[in-house]
Amino acid sequence: MSRTADSSCHSTVFVMPVAIFALLTLVGCADAIRAVAPPADTAVKAMVELVVVGESGIEHQEVDFHEFVRTPGKIVIVDFWAHWCGPCRMLAPELEKVAKARPDEVVVLKVNVDEHVELSSHFGIGSIPDLRFFKDGLPAGGVRGFRTAAELLRELPE
Known about the structure:
This protein is α+β, with helices and mostly antiparallel strands. The chain contains 5 helices and 6 strands; from the N terminus they run H-E-E-H-E-H-E-H-E-E-H.
């Protein structure tokens, strides 16, 4: 009987520091999720903007995160993705449809989580695809997982 109590005591001694560390980590992540601007030392060319180019389709260009997330009068969709992610690859053409459907209102930025670990960590990205919406530089919601273009258009902030 004392052996059971003794082993229970040892597991409690081990579990408590782990639980405290986990709690502190979660508190830190909550602050990162609320933050809008990435850390100052994050690479300036941090993502790709999808630009509608007339009838010829979509052009991809590297852009400055700080500049485009604060685009006045536009809804900025930040797509956190990776090459190896199947749902992310399925989402890409849907985002292009959204960009084509509302070219004067929507800017789509893509952040590869493997290439931009600091930026992804700053926003608390835990699973992908993860879309974050910004309006006038302020967080305006977001969604996780695959969505069709029609669903995304309904989810966008007003």
